[in-house]
TrEMBL record:
The chain crosses the membrane at residues 12-34, 513-532. It is found in: Nucleus. The lineage of its organism: Eukaryota, Viridiplantae, Streptophyta, Embryophyta, Tracheophyta. One of its GO terms (molecular function) is nuclease activity. This is GRF-type domain-containing protein.
Length: 533
């Protein structure tokens, strides 16, 4: 009987060592293979990019920068949104104040040009890297460096508050003494995560941030607060700006901003009357003149406040990054919005002739740092009866000035002989014999002596020169309704002529409406009676 076959412990140990040896050798062979493959791949890539080395790209990079900032202002304006002189001043300011320095291979001017090109045309990093012959990592690195340097210029690029003085001669602002500017909000598209999209969705369905901004009479931004969700209301954003301590909106007591009806009429913020026509399109050619103090106040309010709308338009025309969302994180997007506001102020102060602002009013002024005074600013936004009374007094004073003055040099309208107030100013129509000639009429359209006066004869008899009339111009188109000499046909009441501007036309329109309504009622009654019969 044979014994069973068995292996000793030594044999088992020998077999285990053999297997471990083969496994280690396999790992070593695989390691050397992968290392060789990685080396060959790197060598192949170096062969491909050898002709695009740093030394070979330097002439092309220098040539590209020369075309941007050294050839003409036209190319510099179209690519960087500023002329060569302004670009040079910005680079000096970023070097001295912002702490920006030359890189190892990228000079300071090229860093600033890269950043301005992204803001102006909303280009991606790969496109900018292709234009400047740089890698995407290099573009991203210097974009963040320049962004931080520009934000450091915030105290220098925010102008000082300058209220409207009492002796202001600007027709747009002379009625608002103490006003320091206009205030409004605008939506700027941003890119956020899917979780935050409901908070940033506006009433129009866009994903945007509600940015509060205030500008002065020269379209320079005095304050801006981006970052609020698009679903937030304008009053809520303004309340947050007022309550901030360090970077809040400080309105000195006694001064105010012009705002629209999206805000409360409270101390420091003057809004128009509600329920009264306000927008400029409602005061266009052929529209009815202001008929009372509130309409006159709204007309002058919208003319002055419209400067913030034009400032927003120029800002978004200048920087394409504000017209559509970018792919940066939301914090970087907010900082880029702030940089656009600061650069707008810098360009506004340095460029005397900006193609985007040639049609705007106001001249550029030096920008100085704003002084802070504690305890003198408004700390709440709540509607008050005192501020409503102040608005009523301002509107009544405007209306009284209009009713008592008809010319641009302060000449008074004569008082009518009937004792019903000052006479009304009209102008003879193009078909009249005295076309273009101004005349006064009784405010009540009454028939009495001296109810009609030629303006030039009246002022000549008074010993003064004929003024230049600018208000209450009403045109008379037909010869039948022609204005005649007061010595021949005094007391003649001219019929309405459909201009839509004078009281006669309003009376006729009102009477026609009443007659049409009466006829419609009678017609309906006839139909009802006919059916009943």
């Amino acid at each position: 009987m044979t014994r069973p076959f068995s292996l000793s412990t030594t044999v088992y140990i020998m077999l285990e060592d053999i297997f471990n040896l083969f496994h280690l050798q396999s790992i070593i062979i695989l390691y050397f293979y992968l290392k060789r493959r990685r080396h060959m791949r790197r060598h192949h890539r170096q062969l491909l990019i050898r002709r695009y080395s740093i030394i070979d790209r330097i002439p092309l990079q220098v040539r590209h920068m020369s075309r941007l900032v050294s050839v003409s202002d036209v190319d510099c304006l179209s690519n960087l949104r500023m002329n060569r002189n302004t670009f040079g001043r910005l680079c000096i300011l970023l070097r001295d104040v912002g702490g920006l320095r030359n890189g190892r291979f990228v000079m300071l001017e090229e860093q600033v040009a890269i950043f301005l090109g992204i803001l102006a045309h909303h280009k991606k990093n790969c496109i900018v890297g292709f234009n400047f012959l740089r890698s995407g990592e290099t573009i991203s690195h210097y974009v963040h460096l320049v962004l931080r340097a520009i934000l450091k210029l915030h105290p220098l690029l925010i102008p000082k508050l300058e209220p409207v003085p009492n002796g202001c001669t600007d027709p747009r602002w002379k009625h608002f003494q103490g006003c320091i500017g206009t205030l409004d909000g605008t939506y700027i598209n941003v890119l956020v995560s899917n979780v935050d999209k409901p908070r940033y969705r506006t009433r129009k369905g866009q994903i945007s941030t509600n940015t509060l901004a205030a500008c002065d009479r020269n379209m320079r931004f005095l304050y801006f607060l981006p970052g609020w969700e698009g679903s937030a209301g304008d009053s809520r954003v303004l309340r947050d700006a007022i309550n901030r301590e360090e970077d809040g909106l400080h309105v000195p007591r006694g001064n105010y901003f012009l705002c629209d009806n999206g805000y409360a009429n409270s101390e420091g913020f003057l809004t128009p009357y509600k329920g009264v026509r306000y927008h400029l399109k409602e005061w266009g050619v052929g529209a009815q003149r202001p008929q009372n103090a509130r309409e006159l106040f709204n007309l002058r309010h919208t003319r002055a406040r419209n400067i913030i709308e034009r400032a927003f338009a120029v800002l978004k025309m200048r920087w394409g990054v504000l017209r559509s969302a970018t792919f940066y994180p939301i914090k970087i997007q907010i900082r880029m919005i702030m940089a656009c506001f600061l650069l707008h102020n810098f360009i506004r102060g340095e460029m005397a002739n900006d193609p985007l602002e040639q049609a705007m009013d106001g001249d550029s002024q030096n920008i100085v740092e704003e002084e802070e005074h504690e305890g003198e600013f408004i700390d709440q936004v709540e509607p008050t009866s005192a501020w409503n009374n102040m608005r009523d007094e301002l509107a009544n004073s405007m209306w009284f000035h209009v009713m008592s003055a008809s010319t641009d040099d302060g000449d008074l309208i004569p008082e009518c002989a009937c004792g019903r107030g000052n006479m009304r100013l009209f102008c003879a129509g193009k078909d009249a014999t005295h076309s273009g000639r101004y005349f006064y009429k009784c405010p009540a359209n009454a028939k009495h002596p001296n109810s009609f006066l030629w303006c030039d004869e009246y002022h000549r008899d008074k010993g003064g020169r004929t003024p230049t009339f600018v208000l209450n111009q009403c045109y008379q188109p037909t010869k039948k309704d022609e204005a005649v000499d007061s010595g021949k046909k005094k007391g003649k009441v001219f019929p309405s002529h459909g201009c839509g501007l004078c009281g006669l036309c309003h009376d006729e329109i009102r009477m026609n409406f009443i007659l049409a309504l009466t006829g419609l009622v009678l017609l309906l009654l006839g139909i009802i009676i006919g059916k009943l019969m």
